Amino acid sequence: MKRIIKTADAPAAIGPYSQAVEINDTLYISGQVAIDPRTGKLVEGDIKVQTQQVFKNIDAILKTAGYSFAEVVKSTCFLTDMADFKAMNEVYGQYYFENQPARAAFAVKELPLGALVEIETIAVK
User: Fold this and answer.
1) Which tens digits make up the pLDDT trace of 36-55?
2) Which strands make up the sheet holding 3-5, listed edge to edge?
3) Which domain does 110 fall in, by range?
């Protein structure tokens, strides 16, 4: 059975999609940008600051759904500038320091609200 995940501790969807959907013990988290859920605005700062906020948002959704970073099996990272890859990767490594998930990273022309990074996540129980 499909379960829609929603928490006030992560940004509300800015379109017709869910923060996350769980089905068959698999959690699909929509791409997260660096929106502060308290203000509804993109955090100001460089790629590291934005990546930290993205992971705070992912963490809130994981916890609400009853998952943790240890159960993440796949991440997809979208960057507006591949020159930011190393700095993003440093923050990423703070959350996935062992048993890292599979990952892809892409450069994209632009992201919603002028974000520098967006990360979507899949976790499995």
Assistant:
1) 999 999 999 999 999 999 99
2) 3-5, 20-23, 26-32, 117-124, 72-79, 102-107
3) 3-124
Residue 14 pLDDT more than 90?
A: no
Give residue 100's pLDDT. Answer: 95
Neighbours of 30 (CB within 10 A): 19
Number of domains in the chain: 1
Residue 99 C-beta-side C-alpha neighbours within 13 Å: 7
The strand pair at 72-79 and 102-107 is best described as parallel
The owner of tokens 């929509």 is 30
**What separation in angstroms does the CA of 52 have from each of 15, 20, 23, 68?**
23, 19, 27, 16
Cβ atoms 116, 34 nearer than 8 A = yes
C-alpha distances in angstroms, 13 versus 7, 96, 116? Answer: 10, 25, 18
Q: What is the pLDDT of residue 52?
A: 98
What's 85's domain CATH number? 3.30.1330.40
Backbone angles phi, psi at 6, to 5 degrees: -145, 130
The pTM of this model reads 0.96
